[in-house]
Amino acid sequence: MHNCDQHSDCVEEALRRADNICAERGLRFTQQRRKVLELVWESHGPVKAYDILDRLDSRIAAIKPPTVYRALDFLAENGLVHRLDSLKAFIGCSHPLKHRECYFLICTDCGEAKECCNSELADVINETSHNNGFRAEHTTLEITGECRDCRDTH
Amino acid sequence: MHNCDQHSDCVEEALRRADNICAERGLRFTQQRRKVLELVWESHGPVKAYDILDRLDSRIAAIKPPTVYRALDFLAENGLVHRLDSLKAFIGCSHPLKHRECYFLICTDCGEAKECCNSELADVINETSHNNGFRAEHTTLEITGECRDCRDTH
DNA sequence: ACCGCGAATGTTATATTATAACATAACGTT
DNA sequence: AACGTTATGTTATAATATAACATTCGCGGT
C-alpha cells in the first residue's frame, strides 16, 4: 500500500499542478475534467473508468460514459493521467512535467502501481528502437509482480 | 509490411513448433487450439479475438467467445502467442522457446508488430525492478511509432 | 472393456470497456 | 450580438471479455 500522511494533500497538490499546467498551456481545465482528475486521485492506485463514472453518478446526475472517456482522454493527452493498458485502468501521473521516461511497477497482490523514471531505461529503449529503424512515439512499459511491501508481509 | 516468400511456410513452421513444444511438455494441443493458433498466424500482424471467432464461425458452426478466449489463454500461457495490451490483440510468438526478453515495435501506419529480443533491455528492466524491491513476473513492453518501411515510403 | 477423474469444450447469459454520431451549450473573439 | 471553435449532452451500440453451469472427451487404473 502507498503511504501518505494526508492523502487529501496529494489530491490537492495534483489538482494545483494541473491548474498550473493547463493555465500555462492555454488549455481549458473545466469542472468536469477537474472532477474526473480528482476522482482518479481518490486513491493512489489504478482506477477504472466505470468506477469514476459511478462516483460521478452519485454526486451529479446522469453522467454518461463518453463524458468520462473524453475527460480521461484530455487528461492523458496532457500527461496528467496514464492509462495502464495491462489493467484497463487509469492512474494519476505523479510528475506530469517530465513523464516521458516512465514505467510502472504493478503489484498483483495489493494492486498498487508505482510510477518510476529511469533515463537509462529510456536510453536503451530509444537505442533499440533506433537500431530497428523505428521512430518511437509512445512506450507502454508495465511490469507486474510483487512489490516490496507485499513481499515483506508474506 | 512483413515480407515472407511463402507465408504458408511460416504458418506450418509455427504449428510444427507448437506441436513439438506441447508434446515435450505433455500439453494437450487439441484441434481447437491448433486451429486458433493457425488463425492467429494467418497474418504476421496482430489479430483480434473476434476476428478469429468470425473466421472459425464461417468454417465450423457456432463457436462462441469463451472457446476462442480459452484457446488464446492456453496459447499465451505456453508462450505460443502474445497479447498486445495496447492493441487488445494477439500475435503469434516467433520464437516461443525463449520469449522472456521480448518487446514489440508496433507501427501505427501499417499495423505490423515486430517482436524483438534484447537482453540488455531485459537486464535494465530486471535491475530497475530489483532496485525497487520488486519481484517482476511479467513485463509488457510495447513501443508504438513508425517502422522503417513506412518511414521510407513517406 | 469399463469406470472414474480431471481437463476440455459447449452453452447461455451477461459483464465490462469503449466509441460513433448527432444535438446542444459554453466560451472567446470580433 | 454573430461567429466559429471547443466542450458537453444524449442515444445507441460496438467491441472485448468472463461467469457459471452442463456436457463430453481422453486417459490411467482395474
Poorly predicted segments of chain A: none
Q: Please name the fourth-level CATH homologous superfamily of the largest domain in chain A.
A: Winged helix-like DNA-binding domain superfamily/Winged helix DNA-binding domain
Compute the number of helices of chain A.
6
Number of strands of chain A: 5
Q: Kindly report how far apart the N and C termini of chain A lie.
A: 14 Å
Shape field of chain A: globular
Q: How would a crystallographer describe the biggest sheet of chain A?
A: 3 strands, mixed
Q: H/E series of chain A, N to C?
A: HHHHEEEEHEH
What structural class is derived from the secondary structure elements of chain A?
alpha+beta
Strand order of the largest sheet of chain A: 4-3-5
Indicate the mean pLDDT of chain A.
92
Tally of structural domains of chain A: 2
Helix content of chain A: 40-55%
Could you name the CATH topology of the largest domain in chain A? Arc Repressor Mutant, subunit A
Over all CA atoms, what is the radius of gyration of chain A?
A: 17 Å
Strand coverage percent of chain A: 15-25%
Largest interface: A-B, 33 and 33 residues
Report the top-level CATH class of the largest domain in chain A: Mainly Alpha
Give the assembly state of these chains.
homodimer
Please give the CATH architecture of the largest domain in chain A.
Orthogonal Bundle
